[in-house]
Amino acid sequence: MIRKIFTYPDKILREVSKDVEVFDESLHRLLDDMYETMMEYQGIGLAAIQVGVTQNILIINLVNENGEQDKSDLYEIINPVILEKDGAIVYQEGCLSVPGYYDDVQRAEHIKVTYQNREGKTINREFRGLMAIAVQHEMDHLQGHLFIEKLSYLKRKKFEKEWKKKLKNSK
Ligand code: Y12
Ligand code: CO
């Protein structure tokens, strides 16, 4: 089922998500719905809070070297914790909750993460480059943060002005 994606400035996006404790059929349905929703809106990453569910869940499905978004490359990441981070990388980020706006954000280039999969199994993994960026972007959502909060004061002011205009024109 395709779910509604909440967009800025909806207050729900500021909520802090909670850990998943039960790894049951309803969690699997939510993960399947998140995947369907992300694909429908042509995203590469989605956090549960973006579909209104305040649980520590995110999915990421990057495009591979053949330009395809293969489901076998899908990461379902539950209750993630960053254990270590290092390096720096700048990338022009976008977000399905801020559609149409993209800007440069600096993040760690390499992270070590512990998380659980849909069966509740603990997994320890290292991510680099775009995958590290995506994990950090989605984990910010779980803390109620959006990438636009990382913009400089002047860029943020410009964004707010443009966004208000866009919202007014879409009424
Ligand atoms: C690198 C940087 C950011 C991430 C987080 C995941 N971000 C996305 O998946 C963003 C997707 C996106 C797609 C859009 O297209 C449609 O909605 C059809 C979009 O909207 C427009 O461009 C109008 C905005 C964002 C991972 C890795
Ligand atoms: Co986002």
| Cα separation of the termini | 27 Å
Q: Helical percent range?
A: 25-40%
What strand order characterises the main sheet?
A: 1-2-3-6-7
CATH superfamily: Peptide deformylase
The helix count comes to 3
Mean pLDDT: 98
Radius of gyration: 16 Å
CATH class: Alpha Beta
| Total individual domains | 1
Bound molecules: ligand Y12, cobalt (II) ion
Q: Structural class from helices and strands?
A: alpha+beta
Shape: globular
Keywords, separated by commas or semicolons:
alpha+beta; Peptide Deformylase; two-stranded antiparallel sheet; 27% helix; binds ligand Y12; binds cobalt (II) ion
Helix/strand layout:
Blueprint: H1 25-40, E1 45-47, E2 57-60, E3 75-86, E4 89-93, E5 103-107, E6 110-116, E7 122-128, H2 129-142, H3 153-169
Antiparallel strand pairs: 1-2, 2-3, 3-6, 4-5, 6-7
The structure holds ligand Y12 and cobalt (II) ion (CO).
Provide a descriptive summary of the structure in words.
By secondary structure, the chain is α+β, with helices and mostly antiparallel strands. It has a single domain, classed as Peptide Deformylase (Alpha-Beta Complex). Helices cover 27% and strands 25% of the residues. It contains three helices and seven strands, in the order H-E-E-E-E-E-E-E-H-H. A five-stranded antiparallel beta sheet has the order 1-2-3-6-7. Strands 4-5 form a two-stranded antiparallel ribbon. The radius of gyration is 16 Å and the shape is globular. The mean pLDDT is 98. The structure holds ligand Y12 and cobalt (II) ion (CO). Cobalt (II) ion binds next to helix 2. Ligand Y12 binds at residues 41-45, 91, 93-96, 99-100, 130, 133-134, 137.
